[in-house]
Amino acid sequence: MKFLFICKANVGRSQMAEAIFNSLTKVHVASSAGLNPPTHWEGEKLSKTKHVAPCMLEIGINVSEKISKRLTEPMVKESDRVVVVGEKEDWPIFLKEFVKLTYWDIVDPGDGDRELHITVRDQIREKVVGLVKELEK
């Protein structure tokens, strides 16, 4: 199955979810995108983040070369399942109408400190592990 993880900017939560998911399964594949990445982040590598890349490296996953991407309708249509990690606001119609959509209410760590990023990473990891276990049934 093809999964798509979405958050606001595709700099933190959705990138974490994608990387953790892809590290746990070789049968399924995930990608990620942001609803509204700030222009200064679009196309930028996560190595520029203060906490995201380092906190992922702590669990053995290197996301430093990952790039922030803006969500498009084809991304959603090409996915078997979509998981939105974050706010339920400003969703485009094509996302709202997608049948196989899951919503995880996980706070945006944004400019938060290292501890907040670790907390968010661990919440996402717990959700992703559960998702992968569900797929293996």
TrEMBL record:
Keyword Nuclease among record annotations: no
GO annotation, biological process: response to arsenic-containing substance
Protein name (Swiss-Prot/TrEMBL): Phosphotyrosine protein phosphatase I domain-containing protein
Pfam families: LMWPc
Taxonomic superkingdom: Bacteria
Organism: Candidatus Magasanikbacteria bacterium RIFOXYD2_FULL_36_9
Keyword Chaperone in record: no
InterPro entries: Ptyr_pPase, Ptyr_pPase_sf
PANTHER family: ARSENATE REDUCTASE
